[in-house]
Write a structure and sequence with these properties.
Helix 3 (about 50-65) crosses helix 9 and helix 6 (about 175-185) packs parallel to helix 7. The protein has helices spanning about 5-10, 25-30, 50-65, 90-110, 120-135, 175-185, 200-210, 260-275, 285-290, 320-330, 350-355, 375-385, 395-405, 420-434, and strands spanning about 40-45, 70, 85, 90, 140, 160, 195, 215-220, 225-230, 235-240, 245-255, 300-305, 310, 335-340, 360-365, 390, 410-415. It has about 425 residues and is of the alpha/beta class. The chain is built from 14 helices and 17 strands. The protein folds into two domains: about 5-290, UDP-N-acetylmuramoyl-L-alanine:D-glutamate ligase, CATH 3.40.1190; about 300-434, Protein-Tyrosine Phosphatase, Chain A, CATH 3.90.190. Strands 4-3-2-5-1-6-7-8 form an eight-stranded mixed sheet, with helices on both faces.
C-alpha cells in the first residue's frame, strides 16, 4: 500500500461516520499487541485550547531530552500531521505501512463478526502503534471528541488535563453543558491527577468525578495561575504562581500569542510540575526554554507576507470566537481589519459573527473544504447587516486573493471560522511567501 492508497482507504471509512464507543478500538489494539501500554502518556481534552496545551506539553517534554510522541486532530493539510515523534510527522511510507497493517486487523475483526472500526479509530490505533514502534518514552494524546467514549480513552495517563468546558458538539455529547462536562470528565482515571481550567457547573462535575476516582485535582485560578505582564507583538511575558506548590511569580516567555494562551500555558506549566515528581528531567528551565519557542499553526498565528500582516486562527465556535476577538482587541486594538471567513453550517454561525465582527470591518466570505461547509452565499447574507462591506467567493484561492487586495498592506488580514478553511489557505500563503 502506498500513501495515496492509504488515504483512499481512510476516506472510504467515512461511511461509518462518528460512532462513539470503546469496544472496536479496544479489540483493534488487542490485535496489535496493546501498543498504548508501552510508554507513558498525558491525556488532554477540553472544548478549546486542548491542541495548544498539547503542543506546549510536547515541546516541554522534547526540550527535556525525552523521546516524545504527539497525537492530535484534526490536521491542517496532511493526515501525517496527526502523528509526530520528536516533532517530526510520520513519513508517508510509514503511514501507509501502518494503515496496511491495521487494515488487516480491521478485516479480521469484521470476519469475526465485530463492527468495522471507524476512520478515527484506525488513525488512533496507527498513532499508538507507531509510538510503540519508535519506542517513545512519553506520548501526548489529544482527545478527538468528548472523553468518555473517545477512541483515545483506552490509556491510563500520568496526568489528565481538561482545559475548559463550553457548549459544543452537544448533539453527540448529550445535549446539555452538564452532559458535555460529564463526558470530558470521563478521561479521569483512578488515582491519576487532574489539571483543569473548567469553571462553574462543569468544574463541579469534574471535581465530583475526581473524588470518585481518588484523583487529586488542580484548578486554574485556585491552585495555580499565570499572569500577563506584557506583549511585544511576537512574544508574551508571563509569570506563574502557585501557593499550593510554593511558587511565587515564576517568569517565562510564551511564543504563542493571545489572551487564551495565558491560561493554556498555566495548565502546561502545572502539568509539567506534577510530571517532575516522576521524572526529574522535566525542569522549570526546560519549561521556559520550550515555551519561548513553541508553535501551534493556525492558532492566533501571525504571518508577515511582503509587508502584509496576516493573523490565522482556527476559531470555530462561539467560545473560540470570543477569545479571538478579545486577543485581537488586546494586541492589535488600533488595526483596521479585513476578515476572510468560512464556517461549517452545523455551527452557531450567528452567535459567532455577533462576537467577532465590528461595524467597520471588511469581510470576504468563502467555503471551508468540508461537506459540512456553509455556502458562501448564505454566509454573505448573515454577515452583510453587521459590517460596512462584504464580498463572497466560493473558491478559497480567489477569496484569499481578494482579501489580500482589500487589506493592501494597510490593514490586518484575519483568517478564521474553521480549521477546514485555515489549513488550506495557510498553505497558499506560505507558498506565496516562498
Amino acid at each position: 500500500m502506498n500513501y495515496q492508497e492509504a488515504i483512499s482507504y481512510l476516506e472510504g471509512l467515512k461511511i461509518f461516520g462518528i460512532r462513539l464507543g470503546l469496544s472496536r478500538i479496544t479489540r483493534l489494539l488487542e490485535l496489535l499487541g496493546e501498543p498504548q501500554d508501552r510508554y507513558r502518556t498525558i491525556h488532554v481534552t477540553g472544548t478549546n485550547g486542548k491542541g495548544s496545551v498539547s503542543a506546549m506539553l510536547e515541546g516541554i517534554l522534547r526540550r527535556s531530552g525525552i523521546h516524545t510522541g504527539f497525537y492530535s486532530s484534526p490536521h491542517l493539510v496532511s493526515y501525517t500531521e496527526r502523528i509526530r515523534v520528536d516533532g517530526q510527522a510520520i513519513s508517508e511510507q510509514e503511514f501507509a505501512d501502518g494503515v496496511a497493517l491495521i487494515r488487516k486487523k480491521a478485516e479480521q475483526m469484521a470476519a469475526e463478526g465485530d463492527e468495522y472500526p471507524t476512520q478515527f479509530e484506525v488513525l488512533t490505533a496507527l498513532g499508538f502503534y507507531y509510538f510503540a514502534k519508535c519506542q517513545v518514552e512519553y506520548a501526548v494524546i489529544e482527545v478527538g471528541l468528548g472523553g468518555t467514549l473517545d477512541s483515545t480513552n483506552v490509556i491510563t495517563p500520568e496526568v489528565s488535563v481538561i482545559t475548559n468546558v463550553t457548549f459544543e458538539h452537544a448533539d453527540k455529547l448529550g445535549g446539555t453543558l452538564a452532559s458535555i462536562a460529564e463526558n470530558k470528565a470521563g478521561i479521569i482515571k483512578e488515582g491519576v491527577p487532574v489539571v483543569t481550567a473548567a469553571t462553574g457547573e462543569p468544574l463541579a462535575i469534574i471535581r465530583s468525578r475526581a473524588e470518585e476516582k481518588n484523583a487529586d485535582i488542580f484548578v486554574a485560578g485556585e491552585d495555580f495561575s499565570s499572569r500577563f505582564l506584557s506583549c511585544d507583538g511576537r512574544t508574551q511575558k508571563l509569570e506563574f504562581t502557585s501557593e499550593l506548590l510554593g511558587v511565587d511569580r515564576e517568569p517565562y516567555e510564551l511564543h504563542l500569542l493571545g489572551r487564551h494562551q495565558v491560561e493554556n500555558s498555566s495548565l502546561a506549566v502545572m502539568t509539567c510540575t506534577l510530571l517532575h515528581n516522576i521524572d526529574e528531567r522535566i525542569t522549570i528551565t526546560h519549561v521556559r526554554e520550550a515555551l519561548r519557542i513553541v508553535s501551534w499553526p493556525a492558532r492566533f498565528e501571525l504571518i508577515e507576507l511582503s509587508g502584509q500582516k496576516v493573523l490565522i486562527d482556527g476559531a470555530h465556535n462561539p467560545a473560540g470566537m470570543r477569545v479571538l476577538r478579545q486577543s485581537l482587541d488586546d494586541i492589535f486594538p488600533a488595526e483596521q481589519r479585513v476578515l476572510l471567513l468560512g464556517i461549517l453550517k452545523d455551527k452557531d454561525i450567528d452567535t459567532m459573527l455577533d462576537i467577532l465582527l465590528r461595524p467597520t470591518d471588511t469581510v470576504v466570505v468563502t467555503m471551508p473544504q468540508s461537506e459540512r461547509a456553509d455556502s458562501a452565499d448564505d454566509l454573505l447574507r448573515r454577515v452583510a447587516p453587521a459590517v460596512q462591506h462584504v464580498e463572497s467567493f466560493a473558491d478559497n484561492r480567489e477569496a484569499l486573493r481578494r482579501a489580500l487586495e482589500l487589506a493592501n498592506k494597510e490593514r490586518l488580514l484575519v483568517i478564521a471560522g474553521s480549521l477546514y478553511l485555515v489549513g488550506g489557505v495557510r498553505q497558499m500563503l506560505l507558498a506565496r511567501k516562498d
